[in-house]
Write a structure and sequence with these properties.
The structure holds 2 protein chains of 2 kinds.
Chain A (H helix, E strand, L loop, with lengths): L1 H21 L6 E6 L4 H16 L3 E6 L7 H4 L4 E5 L1 H8 L6 E4 L3 H10 L5 E4 L5 H11 L5 E6 L3 H14 L2 E6 L6 H10 L3 E4 L3 H4 L1 H13 L4 E3 L2 H6 L3 E4 L2 H13 L18 E4 L1 H6 L7 H9 L5
Parallel strand pairs in A: 1-2, 1-3, 3-4, 4-5, 6-7, 6-8, 8-9, 9-10
Antiparallel strand pairs in A: 10-11
Helix pairs in contact in A: 1-12, 2-12, 6-7, 6-14, 8-10
Chain B lengths: L1 H18 L36 E4 L1 H7 L4 H4 L6 E4 L7 E4 L10 E5 L2 E2 L20 E7 L4 H4 L6 E7 L8 E8 L4 E8 L6 E15 L12 E16 L4 E17 L9 E17 L5 E14 L1 E4 L7 E4 L2 E17 L2 E15 L10 E18 L2 E12 L3 E15 L2 E12 L3 H5 L1 E6 L2 E9 L6 E14 L4 E13 L2 E6 L39 E6 L3 E14 L3 E13 L16 E11 L3 E10 L2 E2 L6 E2 L2 E12 L6 E8 L5 E2 L7 E2 L2 E9 L1
Parallel strand pairs in B: 4-7, 24-28
Antiparallel strand pairs in B: 1-6, 2-3, 4-5, 6-7, 8-9, 8-39, 9-10, 10-11, 11-12, 12-13, 13-14, 14-17, 15-16, 17-18, 18-19, 19-20, 20-21, 21-22, 22-25, 23-24, 25-26, 26-29, 27-28, 29-30, 30-31, 31-32, 32-35, 33-34, 35-36, 36-39, 37-38
The chains are: A alpha/beta, B mainly beta.
Chain lengths: ~300, ~700
């Protein structure tokens, strides 16, 4: 209850701060391109377009799902906001406009940016900063020291996690999943000497069959799994920190409010400042873990110190 | 035949799922936003002992591997208060705190939630289950009656054998075991790819062992022996049809011979019994949300025993005898669970099952066929009015083909004292309805159309056994210390306990003069012309009748302590102190001694350097009597020892192990005046790919 009131106050303050900034210029012409006209992309679009319109921006929402994106829609707009990987792919096939990619992972964004390295592209990926995920591990299992990290093929991510783990004084066991057919085998080895497993949002670990294997294998070894979405926690992961479509919309609006030029200055990569926490307490009890209440966990995760 | 076709269709269906792209694969969109199947649902998760409404013991994979046991029934030695015995003339038996006989029909045994007790006697054919120890993920044992959750016949305890999910293993394995006294046990496992929508496992084994060799007691009498040979094949498959739906299939076959009998004894000659058991489980699970789910389970089980021989009594013509039978069970169960509000959960279910048996010698008349249909409705509701307090009310209403309507309620209260400990109290009532044999037996030996012997008989209008039970428990799980403690005090009141007792035929000229309150056998049919003596003995022929044999009380306290530290090892200790008041039981004078005062089990696992591990088991009970075919067994402990070494890559670790079961040699089992169980000494090589 207290958390809900605090959240409401925070949002009110956000809008109050936003209002005068947003009125500073006449507003941008913005096209929001959605990967799908439903689900989380639609939720993002609703949050964003409603609030952006109130701030004086002119927002048009289109979907890249069913038919090719009409080039005329993007012509002369100040900003394209692409929601999802499919939307960004479609936008990149059209004449260049300043584009902010949201509602997708950092890895997917960087892969697509590499195809068009000279374009005006910025991103607000859904990835949580490594330090936040390590603080989640610390908050959940204060006595634990060894975290296993299963990832597919993303060296940059691994480096940032290694650096964050060193700062937190944690031991990071990593395994690179070169061949998805070796999933169970690699998990068996990785989990043996670890206190928990962290999976990153990559295709090899988020396909339903892989999710099933990962969850069953880690549960068999009685090692908790930390993941990246509410769906993974519902599926059986112990916990996750993640950002909701509404929080992404707020992040974009907050950034827009700071733009006072003719054209927006795109952020290279801006990680989400806000997050939600999901804990599967049934799994925790089954594993015999005593987990602190959500409020305490959120405080520790947001606290900044992971030692 | 029908089950084979069904399996093939399912397999083809499952294959087409993967091949045509209907399989659930990663979408092109970002992993962050993907929906996912609910994998660790309430039915898959092991319930925390802190939350369980009744006392539960879990034998996990590590304990299973360290125990060195190769037979499933032996694993139950690790359960507090459980007794395990084997004997030459039948299947091994498991009893909860005693009151056990040759047929452990008061304990419900399930594989992945499907009952596998034999419909014939209601007992479990432990040596003919369609899986082996390596296929088991864990065994969950409810250490008490729980008719409210599992229906009629969940009477003394409920054992649920959870198999390893093929979605969490891949590759292949080969186990070769050889030991003293002709002990061989070889098995293999093959897995499909774990990360595909359709995952499967095929496992098989072949084993042979001499469990008992004929033993001559101090009076010079020779006991019977038992040599076993079995082949087991198991196919398990699970298909993730979409995000919410899963299909599970288990097809199992056990087949083999048991050589039993006493050398040189014409009444009990050495003979071969051929047993075949087939099992088919098919289940569909729809997990709509995290809290709500629907499951439909179909189960088909058949058993066939072929055992016929000639009784060669001196001075008499040979008499044909047999223990041939065929039995089957078909069951359909549907179950739904959901959450009504944040603090209310419920489960509702309905089931129907048909059981049938054929035996010309056990069921004289009606062509040897008996059958019955049972229907049940069950449900439970859990209310958490305050965070530490949980109230759980459950009940089953069963319409049993013999016993009519049976109502089994249970109420439990759990109060969480702090984050690591809880108190639990429960009361309830459970029933056990007579099995097909108990309800219909007229076991005959016929010569030229005449009934020469009537052995087992069923009484008319037998009541179901009833138990009223109450328990108080304390559970603590200190994860940081690696320590868990489970304490319990319980009381059980049995009524209308069903047992067989000798009955009399006053019309027969050889019957002695009997007292007026002697138990009379039912009127035999007109062609009953009995032998005047038992085969090969001077004893007069006897008949036995199943009947309700009075009431008694069982009570006890027990403690179970587990401790583990990664890198050091693990200790699992349990002790039960039990007592019985059977003065009002009329069935058997051994009843008062059928419950051992003390039952202890200890498993110690110690990790050693260089990937060696040693584990030692100690299982002991006080002097007790096994009922009916069993008899006194003096207080004695059994020591087991296993030394193992892992080698090869960590991902595919292989193992070589040396195991001794019963370090002190052969030991009295089930009836110390007749049987000595063989010591087992063997080596195992387990290779994984």
């Amino acid at each position: 209850m207290r958390a809900a009131v605090l959240k409401l106050c925070r949002r009110c303050l956000f809008w109050l701060l936003l209002l005068p900034c947003g009125m500073a210029h006449a507003g941008f012409d913005i096209v929001v391109v959605l990967s799908r006209a439903e689900g989380p992309h639609q939720v993002f679009a609703q949050h964003f377009s409603r609030a952006a319109s109130r701030l004086g921006h002119r927002v048009q929402v289109v979907s890249a799902e069913d038919e090719p994106l009409d080039p005329a829609v993007l012509r002369d707009v100040d900003l394209v906001v692409s929601s999802g990987e499919l939307a960004l792919t479609a936008v990149l096939q059209r004449p260049e406009r300043p584009t902010l990619a949201v509602m997708l992972g950092q890895q997917a964004f960087e892969r697509l940016r590499a195809l068009e390295p000279t374009r005006a592209l910025g991103a607000m990926p859904l990835d949580q900063p490594p330090s936040r995920q390590l603080r989640l591990f610390r908050a959940l299992l204060p006595q634990a020291q060894q975290l296993a990290l299963l990832q597919q093929s993303y060296a940059a991510k691994l480096e940032s996690f290694s650096a964050a783990a060193a700062e937190c004084g944690l031991e990071l066991q990593t395994a690179q999943l070169d061949d998805p057919r070796q999933l169970v085998q690699q998990l068996d080895v990785l989990l043996r000497d670890s206190d928990a497993l962290l999976v990153l949002a990559e295709a090899a670990v988020s396909a339903p069959a892989a999710v099933r294997s990962i969850l069953l294998t880690s549960y068999r070894q009685r090692k908790p799994l930390l993941a990246f979405s509410q769906a993974y926690v519902d599926a059986g992961a112990l916990a996750a920190v993640f950002t909701t479509p509404g929080q992404v919309a707020e992040q974009v609006l907050s950034w827009l409010a700071q733009q006072d030029g003719e054209l927006p200055r795109l952020p290279e990569l801006s990680f989400p400042p806000e997050f939600e926490l999901a804990v599967n307490r049934k799994v925790a009890r089954s594993l015999g873990l005593q987990i602190a209440p959500d409020e305490v966990l959120i405080r520790e995760i947001a606290g900044g110190d992971c030692r | 035949m029908a089950s084979g076709k069904l399996l093939w269709r399912l397999f083809v269906f499952g294959s087409s799922l993967s091949a045509t792209g209907l399989s659930v694969s990663a979408s092109a969109d970002d992993a962050f936003l993907n929906e996912m199947p609910i994998v660790l649902s309430a039915s898959r998760l092991e319930q925390s002992a802190l939350d369980a409404p009744t006392a539960v013991t879990v034998i996990d994979r590590e304990l299973i591997a360290a125990s060195g046991f190769t037979e499933i029934h032996d694993l139950l030695r690790l359960v507090p208060g459980f007794l395990v015995a084997d004997w030459p003339d039948g299947q091994p038996v498991v009893a909860s705190y005693g009151v056990g006989d040759a047929h452990d029909r008061r304990i419900k045994v399930m594989i992945d939630g499907q009952t596998v007790n034999s419909p014939y006697m209601g007992s479990t054919n432990w040596q003919d289950l369609p899986l082996r120890v390596d296929d088991i993920e864990r065994i969950e044992v409810v250490r008490g009656p729980n008719g409210a959750a599992y229906g009629v016949n969940a009477f003394q305890a409920v054992i649920n054998i959870i198999t390893r999910s093929p979605a969490a293993e891949d590759g292949a394995a080969l186990r070769l075991t050889a030991g003293r006294a002709g002990f061989r046990d070889h098995s293999f496992r093959l897995n499909g790819k774990a990360d595909e929508s359709l995952s499967w496992r095929l496992s098989g084994s072949w084993r042979e062992m001499d469990s008992f060799r004929p033993w001559r007691n101090p009076r010079g009498e020779l006991g019977s022996g038992k040599a076993l040979e079995r082949r087991v094949l198991n196919f398990t498959s699970t298909a993730q049809l979409d995000l919410h739906d899963e299909l599970n299939l288990m097809l199992g076959l056990s087949d083999g011979d048991t050589e039993q009998g006493t050398p040189g004894d014409g009444a009990d000659p050495v003979r071969t019994a051929r047993m075949r058991a087939r099992y088919l489980h098919l289940g569909w699970t729809h997990r709509a949300t995290v809290d709500a789910g629907l499951s439909v389970q179909l189960h088909h089980q058949t058993e066939r025993n072929r055992s016929a021989w000639m009784v060669m009594a001196s001075g008499s013509p040979p008499v044909p005898a047999d223990e041939n039978y065929r039995v089957g069970r078909d069951a359909l169960e549907i179950q739904y669970h959901d959450r009504l509000a944040a603090d209310w959960r419920y489960l509702l279910g309905a089931g129907i099952h048909r059981e049938r048996a054929h035996s010309r010698t056990m069921f004289n008349g009606d062509g040897g066929e008996v059958s019955g249909i049972n229907k049940q409705l069950f449900g439970s509701v859990v209310w958490t009015p305050l965070p530490p307090l949980q109230l759980d009310l459950g009940a089953t209403l069963e319409d049993h083909h013999y016993s009519g309507s049976l109502w089994s309620p249970r109420f439990s209260v759990r109060y969480q004292l702090n984050a690591v400990s809880a108190l639990r109290a429960s009361v309830g009532q459970a029933y056990r309805a007579p099995s097909l044999v108990e309800a219909n037996a007229e076991q005959v030996v016929k010569v030229d159309g005449q009934i020469k012997r009537l052995n087992l008989l069923a009484a008319a209008d037998m009541k179901p056994e009833r138990m009223r039970h109450a328990e108080l428990g304390y559970v603590a799980i200190h994860q940081d210390l690696g320590l868990d403690v489970d304490l319990r005090a319980f009381h059980r009141q049995y009524e209308d306990y069903i047992d067989d007792q000798r009955c009399w035929y006053p019309d027969q000229p050889w019957e002695p003069v009997i007292s007026s309150n002697a138990l009379m056998c039912p009127q035999p049919s007109a062609n009953f012309f009995p032998f005047e003596h038992e085969f090969m003995s001077s004893r007069r022929p006897r008949s036995f009748i199943f009947l309700n044999g009075g009431r008694f009380h069982l009570h006890g306290v027990e403690a179970s302590v587990g401790w583990q530290r990664p890198g050091w090892g693990r200790v699992q200790l349990s002790h039960a102190l039990t007592g019985i008041n059977a003065r009002r039981a009329t069935v058997d004078s051994d009843f008062e001694q059928s419950v051992p005062r003390n039952i202890t089990s200890l498993l110690l696992i110690k990790d050693l350097p260089a990937r060696w591990r040693v584990s030692a088991g100690y299982y002991r009970h006080s002097t007790m009597y096994w009922l009916n075919d069993g008899d006194r067994v003096s207080a004695r402990g059994r020591f087991d020892l296993k030394l193992s070494h892992s080698f090869g890559p960590a991902a595919r670790s292989s193992e070589i192990a040396f195991v001794v079961q019963s370090l002190r040699g052969s030991y009295p089992d089930f009836h110390e005046g007749k049987h000595r169980h063989q010591q087992q000494l063997f080596a195992t090589l387990m290779l994984n790919w």
